[in-house]
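Ticket #4471: structure export looks truncated?
Reporter: QA, pipeline team
Priority: medium

Steps to reproduce: submit the single chain below to the structure queue and open the exported record.
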Amino acid sequence: MTIKKLIKFIFTPIKPALVRVAEIIAFVCEKASYWANKLLFLTWWGLPPEPRWFDNHINLYYKWLKTKNPYWLERGAYSLLAIKQGASLLELGCGDGFNAKYFYGHKAKTIVAVDFSKEALQTAQLKNSSPNIKYIFADITKNLPNGDFDNIILDSVIQQIDSDKVPDLLKHIKKRLNSNGILSGNTQVIRDNLIFQNKKDVLKVFSPYFKNVMVFETICFERHNFYFYASDGVVPFNKNWQSFITK
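Actual output as written to the record:
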């Protein structure tokens, strides 16, 4: 009798008990993670100064369970639609690196992930490191990484940039995309920010630099979001997009 068959012979009769024990252990660990991440959220966001980035493990283990709000998953999933298998990708304003690892890293062969917060990059290296991701500290309005990329992602970043700096940023982004490269990301309606109040506002920002721009919106709980794709080639939901993404 092989070792594998011996293990099955011994443990199969007591499988229900083993499953029950494993369920209890998983339940206890889940509760411990919930309260640990709640504590992290309350201390990190409840005490000044308020941070400018977010640890998405707090969403995964605490806030999602508490609020049932799936917005934080939208952001990674919609940019993933524009990424071909084996792509080279640049993420600007990567924050904690959660999306780079758990969304884009599934398809992209190489990822350069940039942020202006050293604390965010420390968390990214600690919790979301991966062999195909390189985290870089940089101010994207002054020092954009060089390269030739299939995808560039601006996830909830552009609304934080001074409006007079946006044109130069988009020019530099365009230079770093290959001929069919796609810029994707999202922004949102912010009361104090009059740049993005509707889809036309978003189109006006990107249309001078790209032949094809597609924008759609979602309203998820308190957030009014605009998701965009911009390229000189095809973009998601274009009639030729499916054949492009599966090449």
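Status: closed, not a bug. The export was complete when the record was re-opened. Leaving a note from the reviewer for reference: The longest helix spans residues 15-46.
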